[in-house]
Amino acid sequence: MPVQKTLRADLRARYTLYVEIGFLLALGVLVLATRLDLRAASTFDVTLTEQPLIEMEDIPLTEIDQPKPPPIRPASLILVPDDTELDDVALELDVMLDIDVPLADLGPPPADADPEEPEERSEPFVFVEQMPELIGGLGDLQKKIRYPEIAKKAGVSGRVFVQFVVDEQGNVK
Questions:
Q1: Among 92, 90, 77, 73, residue whose Cα is nearest residue 154
Q2: Per-residue model confidence as pLDDT tens digits over 103-124
Q3: Can you say whether residue 21 is alpha, beta or left, with left for phi > 0 and alpha for psi between -120 and 50 degrees?
Q4: Rounded-to-integer distance, Cα 123 and Cα 61, Å
Q5: pTM of this prediction?
Q6: What's the rounded Cα separation, in Å, for the pair 167 and 125?
Q7: Could you give phi then psi for residue 153, rounded to 5 degrees?
Q8: pLDDT tens track for 63-114
Q9: CA 1 remoteness from chain centre
Q10: In this structure, are residues 26 and 33 in contact, taking their beta carbons and an 8 Å threshold?
Q11: Which helix (H) or strand (E) covers residue 29, if one does?
Q12: Distances (CA, A) of 55 to 51, 52, 58, 156
């Protein structure tokens, strides 16, 4: 047989009544707390004592001694007999850009020009709308790079800057 609560023990029946009483009590406490006068009945004097003056010292920045770089090793010279001819490689790395050219001169050719006969240009384009792509890609070009024999014989090593021109067909010149 199920156990039933008595009306006196059942709080759910009078839940709204208990909530309303709780709100009224909380409101009453709030009103009383705001109406209470919490000021002290008497005043008191405060005497301030003078604080000692503290002087701040300037601390100089410490300088960290950088370790000296190791001495530069002189390049080892390889003696080459006088009768051996060394190949001299001449590089032309001149690039010219004329800023004084008006923009009207850089446009497309006039419509009356014969499209079947292209103009022969002696200077390559430096700035183009779509950059040309190499035939075989950059990896194919890197496979063809050879270290110069003169540099091997002289024991020279370092960074090399390469400049090349790609023509209309994608060939490297």
A1: 77
A2: 555 556 566 655 565 566 667 7
A3: alpha
A4: 57
A5: 0.23
A6: 10
A7: -70, -35
A8: 888 888 888 887 777 776 776 666 676 766 666 666 676 655 555 656 665 5
A9: 78
A10: no
A11: helix 15-35
A12: 12, 10, 10, 62
> What would the two tokens of residue 165 be?
């021109």
Structure tokens at 116: 């079947």
As a whole number of angstroms, the distance between CA 108 and CA 121 comes to 14
Residues 6+ apart with CB under 8 A from 123: 96
Report how far apart the first and last C-alpha atoms of the chain are (Å, whole number): 105
For residue 167 the two structure tokens come to: 């023509």
In sequence order, what DSSP letters do the residues of 111-166 get, joined into one string? TTS-TTSPPPPSS--SS-SS----TTHHHHHHHT----HHHHHHT--S-------B
Structure token pair of residue 23: 């709100």
- According to DSSP, the residues that pair with 166 across neighbouring strands are 172
Give the position of tokens 């002189």.
74
Q: Which pairs with CB-CB distance under 8 Å and at least 24 residues apart come from 138-147?
A: 141/172
Question: What separation in angstroms does the CA of 152 have from each of 47, 86, 158?
Answer: 90, 11, 12
Structure token digits, residue 89: 């490689």
Please tell me what DSSP assigns to residue 82. T
Q: Compute the C-alpha angle 38/40/41, nearest 5°.
A: 120
